[in-house]
Write a structure and sequence with these properties.
Outer membrane efflux proteins (OEP), alpha+beta, four-stranded antiparallel β-sheet, single chain, two-stranded parallel ribbon
């Protein structure tokens, strides 16, 4: 009795676990992947580094402040700063102070450097979002592949069920002597072939699950199942939008375009920074200074003169302006300007290349959607006709009016038509989803761009 209770408890636990197992939606898969993908995390680190550079460029406009202090132990011939005479003796002396330096003008280098680092930061942030979008598209493709493989398993199961039922009918007729043994053997071989087809479909489904888990960087030992959404019949709404209109909207929405544009602007600011090196530089300098010496004598009474009193009495302040004008630097700055101009032109080419690649991707995706839509319509008609042919062939085969080859051909035609219809349907839905993404609809509900600054 105790053993029966333990077994019953184990069964209840197993059923409960099975029922409580989480079904992963597409949004769940994408969110998990974005939270755990290494490439996304690396791009985020790059953006943090760019943010640090941007912050540093703003801080660099502040005045520099330096404090200093010296204490010397002199032995031998040394200068006595109290009498400004050289003396050959041992004594101690020192000084301390604070110095500040501010660049008043430098060819607007500080301003242009801030702008350059800002555009580099914006470009890096767009790269993070672009990487996230790439992962989202890959996850979506793998997710739809699983949905397709699940439907292929359903089709294979229906084929096997129909064949198994037919085999049982043939077996009954064989047992009563209405059909020869060869007909039964043919049906048994067909059942074995359909079982193989089902096993192959399940293997493909398992492989697709593995592909999705690897893209998500999910533990492959974790048994997870995706939620099967309601896939409605396809419509032609996507095909009514022209490629040029999709590209125009994509240019406003996709981060890879904005990233290339920001990078181009950063290169333009970089040229301005380097050109600023040819300009005169004007500095404001302030100094607060004091000194002390073991040889110092109190000027009031000639007596003891503590260091603290000397520091207070020897205070010195200085405020000055300095101007430096670059005249000849071995053409270093000119070469840097030339190289910077080349980098700017290359960034311009990169922007053009990104736009061309995007246009080609959109054009190909739009054409794929059209092709899938047409295939789906023709496959639907073929599946409907093949279903009627198979029903008729099954009836005729049961009466012994057609050969097994004819029956097998009718079944294969139906399986092929339904498979083609399923493939076209999910390909169209994937293409449609990606085109919607080009038009500004994110893969994740509520997904907003990253905070730029």
């Amino acid at each position: 009795m105790k053993r029966f209770g333990a077994i019953l408890l184990l069964v209840l636990i197993t059923v409960t676990i099975g029922r409580s197992q989480k079904l992963w939606t597409l949004e769940d898969c994408i969110k998990y992947a974005l939270d755990n993908n290494i490439q996304v995390k690396r791009q985020q680190l790059y953006s943090e580094s760019a943010r640090n550079n941007y912050n540093q460029s703003m801080i660099s406009v502040l005045p520099g402040l330096t404090a200093f202090a010296n204490h010397d132990f002199n032995s031998g011939r040394a200068l006595n700063y109290e009498t400004y005479q050289w003396e050959n003796r041992e004594f101690e002396q020192g000084n301390m102070g604070i110095e500040s330096r501010l660049k008043l003008f430098g060819g607007f280098q500080n301003y242009n450097n801030i702008q350059q680092q800002k555009f580099l930061l914006l470009s890096r942030l767009e790269d993070v979002e672009s990487q996230m979008n790439d992962i989202s598209i890959r996850i979506s493709a793998a997710y739809f592949q699983i949905l397709l493989d699940m439907e292929m398993v359903d089709i294979a199961e229906r084929m096997l069920e129909a064949t198994s039922n037919e085999m049982e009918a043939v077996r009954t007729n064989f047992q009563v002597g209405n059909l020869p043994r060869g007909r039964l053997l043919e049906m048994e071989s067909q059942v074995a072939a359909d079982e193989y087809q089902l096993i192959q479909a399940k293997n493909n489904l398992n492989s697709s699950y593995l592909d999705l888990a690897q893209i998500m960087q999910l533990d492959t030992n974790y048994d997870f199942q995706i939620a099967k959404p309601g896939i409605t019949d396809i419509d032609e709404s996507v095909m009514l939008i022209s490629v040029d209109n999709i590209f125009e909207e994509a240019g406003k929405n996709l981060p890879q375009i904005r990233s290339a544009e920001y990078y181009l602007e950063s290169k333009e600011r970089e040229m301005a920074v380097i050109r600023g090196q040819q300009s005169p530089r004007l500095y404001l300098r302030g100094l607060f200074y004091s000194r002390y010496s073991e040889l110092a004598v109190n000027p009031l009474d000639g007596g003891e003169y503590p260091y603290s009193t000397q520091i207070r009495d020897n205070k010195y302040r200085q405020l000055g302006i300095s101007l430096t004008i670059p005249i000849l630097d071995g053409w270093t700055v000119r070469n840097r300007i030339s190289n910077s101009r080349i980098s700017y032109m290359d960034a311009n080419y990169q922007l053009d290349a990104v736009r061309q690649d995007l246009y080609a991707e959109i054009h190909q995706m739009h054409q794929n959607a059209i092709n899938a839509y047409n295939r789906y319509n023709y496959a639907g008609k073929a599946a409907l006709a093949a279903g009627e042919v198979f029903d008729f062939a099954k009836e005729q085969f049961g009466l012994g009016l057609i050969s097994f080859v004819d029956y097998q051909y009718a079944q294969s035609s139906l399986f092929r038509a339904e498979s083609n219809m399923a493939q076209a349907k999910y390909e169209y839905h994937l293409c449609s989803r990606i085109i919607d993404f080009y038009l500004g609809e994110g893969f994740i509900p509520g997904n907003t761009p990253l905070s730029p600054l």
